[in-house]
Design brief:
Length: 444
């Protein structure tokens, strides 16, 4: 889709017999360092599936910008207990080792509570953790991840689960319904053990985190992970329910596991501040931006106390409602906002709009253009993709002040080589229109 709204369909799933190419993709796409996109489908694929559907347990695929799709892996293709996982719902990430990581909602061990997996670009999959593996009531290590994994600046993997977490003292509800865990997987190339950072449903911290945590940045763009805007590398995320008003929360967790409740939604009359948040992303100003599925008090959407909102929240918890949906412009936003390199945020709604079948929207908050890197970490001598707008005529690229060799590929892409004297810090691109900065790039 162009910024002006022209849509081109690249691929329609279930184009092959018995949906061997996949069915029902629920996650966004990952742009990998090779320039292709990678994603998952919740259903479809070849072979039997013993969990819930006759159309397969899901796939992992690669697709080019021209729409050529390759199915890399089919889950549970050999039947049994789906030890390799089933029904992935979350986007993939590309690790610093060049492999991809993700989660499945079901499958794994006999409890079928989901997995974390690693897959090579060639399609070799390794299950690195099966949830509900620890002894104790209600899956103390978590169950049913709906979010993908995040690779922290320490190289480890972080993931939230929508259920499990055991029943801790002071829990307000049965944690099989409202639980969830933020797990840290001590996993770089190989995985050994999972350590729980926080068990949800304690007091008013929220219930069922359904999206990946965001590790705050140190100074500029890229809506996923890196260091920290306050120098701590803390993680921020949302829980879709729970909190003081049972309408969801924004939370902060330190790498050592200290939990901080940042905000409880529906704190204003008629939930004017929103209710039931989706995932948040960090903007170039260091604040977080997101959407809520309900709230704003609009009577057009009574079931969720409104049609949803777009919000901005500071790390300290000051929330500003940027937009309240009115159904005609969208209803029930479900996606994570993406800040494009022109500084504008883009998102989607599930319902509403002229046809009632959802919208794509943009919202400007006055933030300026920037560049982002793919990947966000790399070793000296590696090639980095730098994305932006109006990059034609770029005259210099530097990594934390150190000049780098580069090539202008197009008006929106530059490739650069990490210089031998580079250190962790922002990448700066000098263009005829001025200098553009990235999030801090971590030199490995």
């Amino acid at each position: 889709m162009t910024p002006a709204g022209k849509v081109t369909t690249l691929y329609s799933f279930c184009s092959k017999a018995k949906c061997a190419d996949g069915n029902s993709p629920e996650a966004g796409l990952l742009l990998a360092t090779n320039g292709n996109f990678y994603g998952t489908t919740k259903f479809g694929g070849v072979g039997p599936c013993v969990i819930g559907t006759a159309t397969g347990c899901g796939t992992i695929f690669e697709i080019t910008t021209e729409g050529k799709l390759t199915t890399l892996y089919t889950f549970c293709k050999e039947g049994g207990e789906c030890s390799d996982g089933a029904e992935p719902e979350a986007p993939l990430i590309e690790g610093t080792n060049g492999n991809f990581y993700g989660t499945t909602f079901y499958g794994g061990n006999s409890n079928s509570a989901g997995t974390v997996f690693r897959i090579t670009p060639a399609g070799k999959l390794t299950t690195i953790y099966s949830f509900c593996s620890k002894t104790g009531a209600n899956c103390p290590d978590g169950a049913y991840p709906t979010a993908g994994v995040v690779q922290g600046t320490d190289g480890n993997l972080y993931v939230t689960t929508s259920g499990g977490g055991g029943l801790e003292s002071g829990a307000k509800e049965d944690s099989t319904e409202c639980g969830g865990v933020l797990d840290v997987l001590k996993a770089k190339e190989n995985f050994h053990e999972a350590f729980d950072l926080w068990l949800f449903c304690e007091a008013e911290d929220g219930e069922g985190p359904e999206d990946s945590p965001v590790q705050a940045q140190a100074s500029a763009p890229e809506p996923s992970v890196s260091s920290s805007s306050n120098g701590t590398g803390n993680f921020y995320g949302t829980a879709s329910g729970g909190g003081a008003n049972l309408s969801g929360t924004v939370f902060e967790i330190t790498p050592s596991g200290k939990f901080i409740l940042v905000y409880s939604f529906c704190s204003n009359a008629k939930c004017a501040d929103g209710a039931y948040p989706n995932a948040i992303s960090e903007g170039t100003d260091g604040n977080f931006y997101g959407t809520t599925a309900g709230g704003n008090g609009n009577s057009a959407c009574p079931s969720l106390n409104g049609c949803g909102t777009v919000f901005e929240i500071t790390p300290g918890g000051t929330l500003t409602t940027l937009h309240s949906f009115e159904k005609s412009d969208g209803q029930d936003p479900v996606s994570t906002l993406v800040q494009a390199t022109n500084g504008v945020f883009y998102g989607t709604t599930f319902f509403g709009g002229a046809s009632g079948d959802g919208t794509v929207f943009s919202i400007s908050t006055g933030l300026g253009p920037f560049v982002r890197t793919v990947p966000t970490m790399g070793a000296v001598g590696s090639t980095v993709m730098i994305l932006g707008t109006d990059l034609t005529g770029a005259s210099a690229v530097s990594f934390n002040g150190k000049a780098a060799a580069f090539k202008v590929v197009s008006a929106t892409e530059i490739t650069a080589t990490v210089p031998s004297d580079a250190t962790t810090g922002t990448i700066e691109v000098t263009t005829p229109g001025g200098k553009l900065e990235s999030w801090p790039f971590q030199v490995l």
